[in-house]
């Protein structure tokens, strides 16, 4: 575990939009600028930058190269890029900060799902030899997972609806959320038709564009920049086997393992922000963390990924939303989660505390 | 550098060729990984985390393929991080892996990078799935012409680099193009692709993978073989295009080199570095990087080539492995530079070993020559 204390001292996110007019780099520029301004630093003080994005969303190779504009890469900067959610970019930057030779790092994530059909794009993420040729798309896969969860007796369709009610109601207070409805009820949701049985449309994430950035600082530098930094107590990520047939789709052992490795001991949490992009996945994640919707921990006060799903940003948005609760003083111990791959195959957990 | 010291204790490469249709993508990766583990005298069980890199996913047509490769990589229940920094990615992946060790997050890390270009069409992929792309050679040719004009280098310098690298590759069991008898005449007479680059002055498209095992001092002690220690490592990026940019000698390349020299305490790279593995996909990039990384003065890089200084037996051997010019599985190529530099430092490079190497330089670049990853490796750990 880290020898050095590292904290989030600045952040910003774009609203989650169904079809944003600006290009990906145009979404990023104000977000990176605002995060830097919130931290109150000069761009030149940043010792390392890491970006997260996906070529296939943009539909071109090296899509991340133009995102360097947002990082302000002139004069040259120390910079790297992950082909993953911005949460993994933050992980790399957090790791780099621990070496002690730099004080400040920037991480960001961005993606526009609107130009393409995400169901077609993400079907190409599956094993090209054995799985992709079957033509299964992400929503159908999520339906299989939802069915497995129902069959296991761990959840009911009513539980799925409760997740959505929590998301829509919380999102009503989040200016960046895409889908919000303060008045929705379980009964109203269950009256909707199936989309991919047993999933209804509201059990699935929206198609979203968005960007998010975070500034981290080390030790006393963080205290100097922020009156109440969100201290990262631990961060870890784990991946599972790919073939859905060899996994128990109703559980998320990699989330549980990542949480443990990040230092989460099951103690009280004020807030948890999860990247379950389908309502049954949120229940699986809560179960893996030993939490529930009716417990003392506030679940997805932002509305979560069901209220806005800018792929490649959405996981880092969860971390930023959780960190914001610490920085504004309304929470003292929070946990955020990001995911990658189909059906929660890969999971990242970030545990943060106030001082 | 603070915290842990980091060494490469295992290196594995596939046999590179145009089409590796004898193996799947997972099979290709395991060939490199298994060789690296065998070299390190370890098994997958000893690996704490996996870092993987490749160039654009469009080359094989699989979105973030490491997700489906997780099992073959031995990454299940472990952290798996995917790096993508264009052509420099193999070098960046090695460096990200090393940072896991240096920061003390994990003790032993597998870094692997790959490309299976025969699964798709790289030129189509490079052009973003549109036809009419100018290819990497088309993008770099104007800068090579600018170098020739500024330095006054004679035309045959490019041919000399091609002959040297292809002959060196003949001594490397893993290299793709092995031409022990190639002559200047043959290079000169090969068709012009992108002026000034002729067919024999250009890299091939290869299938292949490269893996390295990175570990800390405790891990290195367990190995019976010599280790290659990081004394410097750096990544630098700059904007790819703006007025006033010098694409012939990009500032990010200059600063990346100076960063690793400073970390390693090198004040005169030409005399203090025993061997260099530089990313040279087109012949002219050898003299360009010798100057671009301040190993040679302005206009002096081509003279190092001309005098035979960069030959296998020269004072400053460049790419004894045969380099990218002989083998280019794009995503893997940057890591091969670090792997080959490590083999030289460990004295395990076989027929293309340079005698008595104590300090080796590894370099990868990518994008519009706006991404750089560099490392200095030595026989002993840093102080």
**N-to-C span of chain B:** 9 Å
Instruction: Summarize the main sheet of chain A.
Output: 10 strands, mixed
The strand count of chain A comes to: 12
**Overall morphology of chain B:** globular
Shape of chain A: globular
- Structural class based on helices, strands and sheet pairing of chain B: alpha/beta
Low-confidence stretches of chain A: none
Q: Number of domains in the coordinates of chain A?
A: 2
- Provide the spatial order of strands within the biggest beta sheet of chain B: 3-2-4-7-1-8-11-10-9
Mean pLDDT of chain B: 96
- Level of helix content of chain A? 25-40%
What is the CATH class designation of the largest domain in chain A?
Answer: Alpha Beta
Rg of chain B, rounded, reads 19 Å
- β-strand amount of chain B: 15-25%
Helix/strand order of chain A = EHEHHEHEHHHHEEEHEHEHEHEE
The CATH C-level name of the domain at 7-123 and 205-221 in chain B is Alpha Beta
Task: State the fourth-level CATH superfamily of the largest domain in chain A.
Answer: Thiolase/Chalcone synthase
CATH topology of the domain at 7-123 and 205-221 in chain B: Peroxisomal Thiolase, Chain A, domain 1
Reported CATH architecture of the largest domain in chain A: 3-Layer(aba) Sandwich
Describe the secondary structure blueprint for this structure.
The complex is a heterodimer of chains A (about 350) and B (about 375).
Chain A: E1 6-13, H1 24-39, E2 48-52, H2 55-58, H3 63-71, E3 79-82, H4 86-97, E4 104-112, H5 118-123, H6 138-151, H7 157-171, H8 186-190, E5 194-196, E6 199-200, E7 209-218, H9 219-225, E8 230-239, H10 253-261, E9 271-273, H11 279-288, E10 298-299, H12 314-327, E11 333-340, E12 346-353
Parallel strand pairs in A: 2-3, 2-4, 9-10, 9-11
Antiparallel strand pairs in A: 1-7, 1-8, 4-7, 5-6, 8-12, 11-12
Helix pairs in contact in A: 1-3, 4-12, 7-11
Chain B: E1 7-13, H1 25-40, E2 49-53, H2 66-69, E3 80-83, H3 89-102, E4 108-116, H4 122-126, H5 135-151, H6 156-169, H7 184-189, E5 192-194, E6 197-198, E7 207-215, H8 217-221, E8 228-237, H9 251-264, H10 269-272, E9 275-277, H11 285-292, H12 301-306, H13 323-326, H14 330-346, E10 359-366, E11 371-378
Parallel strand pairs in B: 2-3, 2-4, 9-10
Antiparallel strand pairs in B: 1-7, 1-8, 4-7, 5-6, 8-11, 10-11
Helix pairs in contact in B: 3-14
């Amino acid at each position: 575990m880290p020898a050095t204390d590292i904290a989030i001292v600045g952040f910003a996110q774009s609203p989650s939009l169904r079809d944003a007019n600006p290009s990906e780099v145009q979404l990023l520029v104000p977000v990176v600028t605002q995060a830097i301004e919130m931290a109150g630093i000069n761009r030149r003080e940043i010792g390392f930058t890491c970006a997260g994005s996906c070529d296939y969303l943009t539909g071109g190779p090296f899509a991340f190269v133009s995102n360097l504009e947002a990082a302000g890469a002139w004069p040259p900067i120390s910079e790297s890029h992950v082909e993953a959610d911005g949460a993994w970019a933050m992980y790399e930057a957090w790791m780099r900060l621990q070496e002690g030779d730099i004080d400040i790092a920037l991480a960001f994530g961005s993606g526009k799902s609107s130009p393409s059909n995400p169901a077609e794009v993400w079907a190409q993420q599956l094993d090209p030899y054995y799985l992709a040729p079957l033509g299964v798309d992400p929503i159908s896969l999520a339906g299989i997972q939802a069915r497995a969860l129902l069959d296991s007796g761990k959840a009911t369709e009513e539980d799925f609806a409760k997740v959505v009610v929590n998301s829509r109601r919380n999102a009503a207070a989040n200016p960046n959320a895409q889908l919000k409805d303060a008045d929705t009820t379980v009964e109203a949701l269950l009256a909707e038709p199936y989309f991919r049985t047993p999933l209804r449309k509201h059990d699935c994430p929206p198609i979203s564009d968005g960007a998010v950035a975070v500034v981290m600082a080390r030790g006393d530098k963080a205290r100097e920049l922020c009156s109440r930094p969100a201290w990262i107590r631990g961060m870890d990520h784990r991946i599972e086997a790919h073939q859905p047939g060899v996994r128990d789709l109703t559980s998320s052992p990699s989330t549980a393992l990542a949480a443990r490795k990040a230092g989460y001991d099951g103690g009280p949490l004020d807030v948890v922000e999860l990247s379950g992009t389908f309502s049954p996945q949120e229940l699986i994640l809560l179960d893996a963390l030993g939490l529930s919707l009716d417990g003392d921990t506030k679940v997805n006060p932002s509305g979560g990924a069901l209220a806005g799903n800018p792929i490649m940003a959405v996981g880092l948005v969860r971390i930023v939303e959780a960190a914001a609760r610490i920085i504004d003083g309304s929470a003292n111990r929070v946990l955020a989660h990001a995911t990658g791959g189909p059906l929660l195959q890969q999971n990242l957990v970030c545990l943060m505390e106030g001082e | 550098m603070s915290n842990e010291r980091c060494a490469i204790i295992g290196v594995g490469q596939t046999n590179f060729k145009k089409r590796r249709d004898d193996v799947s993508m997972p099979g290709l990766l395991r060939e490199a990984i298994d060789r690296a583990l065998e070299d390190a005298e370890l098994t997958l069980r000893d690996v704490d985390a996996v870092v993987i890199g490749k160039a654009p996913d469009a080359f094989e047509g699989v979105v973030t393929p490491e997700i489906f490769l997780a099992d073959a990589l031995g990454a299940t229940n472990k952290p798996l991080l995917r790096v993508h920094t264009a052509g420099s990615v193999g070098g960046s992946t090695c460096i990200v892996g090393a940072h896991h060790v240096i920061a003390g997050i994990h003790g032993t890390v597998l870094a692997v990078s790959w490309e299976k270009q025969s699964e798709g069409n790289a030129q189509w992929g490079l052009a973003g799935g549109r036809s009419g792309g100018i290819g990497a050679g088309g993008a770099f040719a104007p800068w090579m012409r600018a170098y020739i004009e500024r330095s006054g280098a004679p035309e045959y310098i490019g041919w000399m680099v091609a002959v040297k690298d292809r002959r060196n590759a003949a001594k490397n069991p893993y290299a793709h193009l092995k031409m022990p008898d190639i002559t200047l005449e043959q290079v000169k007479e090969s068709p012009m692709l992108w002026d000034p680059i002729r067919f024999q002055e250009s890299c091939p498209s290869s299938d292949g993978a490269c893996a390295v095992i990175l570990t800390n001092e405790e891990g290195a002690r367990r190995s019976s073989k010599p280790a290659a220690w990081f004394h410097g490592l750096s990544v630098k990026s700059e904007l790819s295009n703006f007025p006033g940019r010098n694409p012939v000698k990009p500032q990010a390349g200059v600063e990346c080199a100076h960063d690793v020299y400073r970390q390693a305490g090198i004040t005169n790279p030409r005399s203090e570095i025993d061997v260099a593995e530089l990313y040279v996909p087109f012949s002219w990039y050898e003299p360009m990087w010798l100057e671009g990384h301040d190993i040679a003065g302005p206009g002096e890089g081509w003279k190092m080539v001309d005098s035979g200084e960069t030959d296998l037996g020269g004072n400053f051997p460049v790419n004894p492995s045969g380099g990218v010019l002989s083998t280019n599985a794009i995503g893997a190529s940057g890591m091969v530079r670090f792997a080959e530099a490590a083999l030289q430092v460990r004295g395990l490079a076989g027929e293309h070993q340079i005698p008595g190497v104590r300090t080796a330089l590894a370099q990868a670049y990518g994008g519009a020559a706006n991404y750089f990853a560099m490392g200095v490796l030595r026989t002993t750990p840093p102080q």
